[in-house]
Amino acid sequence: MGQIDRLLKNYTRYVELPWANNLDGLQRIWFAVYPPAEERRLRVQLSAFDLATKAAGHGWLLVDLTDSLPDWLAGYEHFQDCLRDPEIVALGMSDLTKSVADKVAAALVHSKADNNSVVALHGLAGLYSFVGMSAIVKEVSKDVRGRLLVFFPGEYDKNFYRFLDASEGFNYLATPITCEESFIKL
After folding, report:
1. pLDDT at residue 82, rounded to an integer
2. Range name among 28-42, 60-74, 80-94, 97-111 with the lowest pLDDT average
3. pLDDT above 70 (res 123)
């Protein structure tokens, strides 16, 4: 069985478990961790995650962050300056972070994203080295009503998540869902 198939199997088991309603926003966040090399396979299987969620009796709302950086750059007031000197982009990174956080927050308060729904984020690789996922997660955690599923290309080890090939990890309070064979035993 491939890694994304195992991730789907583990996710299916997890989404079928009863949900506690008295959790803080940070405790309602799940990270589906998979090897970055499996990104295309994951994208092909996104509809299977949707079906598994709905089969478990929950709603599903998918948010694609793939084009967040180019969309933001296209509207950036200093875009022409960035073409001459790419280091100028660094000056606007807090604006980009806010833009991404606003997009995720809007999805979390959407009418389809109630207490019984999963809002799933994918396409994070396009934000690598521009936006820290920790900042996004902290910013939107107060808006999570059901569950926020973050498709996380990277590694999970001993409560630390490493995004892509980052040299350092971050200790998110999110619940990990991994590609490991023995993830959940029911």
Report:
1. 64
2. 80-94
3. yes
Q: Are 122 and 62 in contact (CB under 8 A)?
A: yes
Produce one character per residue of 77-91: b if its CB has 16 or more CB atoms within 10 Å, e if not: eeeeebeeeeeebee
Is the CA virtual torsion 69, 75, 77, 79 positive or negative?
positive
C-beta of residue 26 within 8 angstroms of C-beta of residue 173: yes
Tokens coding 99: 């833009």
pTM: 0.89
Tell me the β-bridge partners of 160: 157
Q: Are 146 and 58 in contact (CB under 8 A)?
A: yes
Q: Which CATH number fits domain 3-16+26-177: 1.10.287, 3.40.50, 2.60.40, 2.60.120?
A: 3.40.50
* Three-class secondary structure of residue 176 per DSSP: strand
Domain ranges of the chain: 3-16+26-177
Q: Which of 34, 31, 60, 32 has its CA nearest to residue 47?
A: 60
Which of 40, 32, 45 shows the shortest CA–CA distance to 161? 32
Taking alpha carbons only, the member of 124, 61, 63 closest to residue 97 is: 124
Which of 128, 184, 186 shows the shortest CA–CA distance to 11? 184
